[in-house]
Amino acid sequence: MSTESRRRSRQPETKLSMASMIAVIFLLLIFFVLAAHPRNVLSKLAVDRPTDTPGPPNPTLIEIVVSDTGLVMNGRQVSLDYVDTFLEKTAKLSSDCNVAVICASQSQHSKLIRVLDTCAAHKFHNISLLSQ
User: Fold this and answer.
1) What gap in Å lies between CA 1 and CA 85, rounded to an integer?
2) N or C terminus: which one in the chain shows less Cβ crowding within 10 Å?
3) CATH code of 119's domain
């Protein structure tokens, strides 16, 4: 028996081929991806719909463009002080307005932060931040 144990220990180790294991894993992955039923997430999202309230309409959108040359609000060049006073007057009427802050790629970060701080100071909650 001692010679048989020596022969077995001298035999080279067999290696398993990883290619077949990887192929099986990819086949299982493809099966589970194709067999899975996607959830309909869009049907479960809460949507805030506007109510029908009589009265004068609120300004729907205030567009502020932050560029490297300065600030442009609703199509005209303005200063930060003008934006502050305009948002203050608008907030007295209604702070439910939508504010779209569009930031150019070459603009200074500090200008964007000042505009966002001004919007927050006047309690505007519907703020959209876009990049150009």
Assistant:
1) 99
2) N
3) 3.30.420
